[in-house]
UniProtKB/TrEMBL annotation:
Pfam families: UbiA (PF01040). One of its GO terms (molecular function) is prenyltransferase activity. Belongs to the UbiA prenyltransferase family. The lineage of its organism: Eukaryota, Viridiplantae, Streptophyta, Embryophyta, Tracheophyta. The chain crosses the membrane at residues 120-140, 146-165, 191-210, 216-235, 247-266, 278-300, 325-346, 352-370. This is OLC1v1008955C2. One of its GO terms (cellular component) is chloroplast membrane. Gene3D superfamilies: UbiA prenyltransferase. It is found in: Plastid, Chloroplast membrane. It is a multi-pass membrane protein. Keywords: Chloroplast, Membrane, Plastid, Transferase, Transit peptide, Transmembrane, Transmembrane helix.
Amino acid sequence: MESLLTGSLAKPTSFSCYPGIAGLRSTSHGARILQCKQRENIEKQLMEPEILHKNLQMSSQNVRISNNIVKSSSLISRKGSDSFLANSALNTSYESESSKSLLKTIQETYDVFYRFVRPYAFVGDISSILTVSLIAVKSLSDFSPMFLTGMFQVMAAVFFMYIYYVGINQVADVEIDKVNKPYLPLASGEYSMKTAWIIISLSAIVSFGISWSVGSLPLFCGLLTLFVFGTIYSVDLPYLRWKKSALLAGVCTLAFRVPTQLTYYWHMQSFVLGRPVVATKPITLALAMTSLFSIVIALFKDIPDIPGDKLHGVKSLAVRLGQKTVFGICIALLQIGYLSSIAVGLTASQNWSKAITVGGHMFLALLTWIRAKSIDLEKKEDTSSFYQFIWQLLHAEALLIPLIR
């Protein structure tokens, strides 16, 4: 029986090896057939354990192979899943870092451009445009889409021209700015001269392009005035660079404000609203106060720049007379302007106009006097802060003057 389980079964060669069959040799043919069938049955019975054993072995092998396949598939799947998760995490991290890097690049680019343009000074131009635009308004019906479009066309064209004359001034003053204003992009090396010239040139082209598309002669004249005086104020060529002279610098500063303000008023009154240009009380006061603020700004901005101006031979009024004297002149001019505005406000025909303009200018005069008493001219941060304060006074003036009726 042990040989059967190991698969070494040998077929019997004669019937004599089977008990009970040897005595049937001499039987008939039918008996022999019966013997053969019995033999086959016995052989089948003897072979079944061997077949069963082999089948069990094959089934066991198949199970083991299947288990190995399943394990391998599971391992491959798990490794693939881990690889996918790792790649997903890596891609997510890479995309996050790329987004942060892109955002940082945009912020840095904006910061450099902001310091190159210095838009705080352009707010003064916006104030001038807003002032003369509101002076041209006679009734609420004037606030039409055409009126707003005309005003924003002026602001857009002047903004690009403003970039031109601020940029050309930095190009001409790059060595001085390395002493006085090292944070500016050209002085710090963040912008090359080529980059600065590209920005300057494109800005001038866009500004004149807006004027040409609008078709307004007053607007073109205002932009041309800014272009010409912005160039002769800064460019270091024969008979130019008027900023070296206190008198000529004052002329340029007045030209930046007074003639241009007239052209803005001319544009809004005639080109946009279709009315004749008339010299009214508000526009006269606006031109006078703009001239006064232009002189004050031109004088005061040189107070923090004395070291660099002395080094490069720029004989500004602050260099010649000293900080305290020039500062006193600036405060006196502002107070004269406020007293004049109060006098004009008292002549207003409407009581509400009289109360607002007189009260507003009295408040600004007192605020200026108090602020002037607290400034330390030896501290550059104090002088820079007061310079910004002067611009804020100009913006407040732009809101008060149109209310004089």
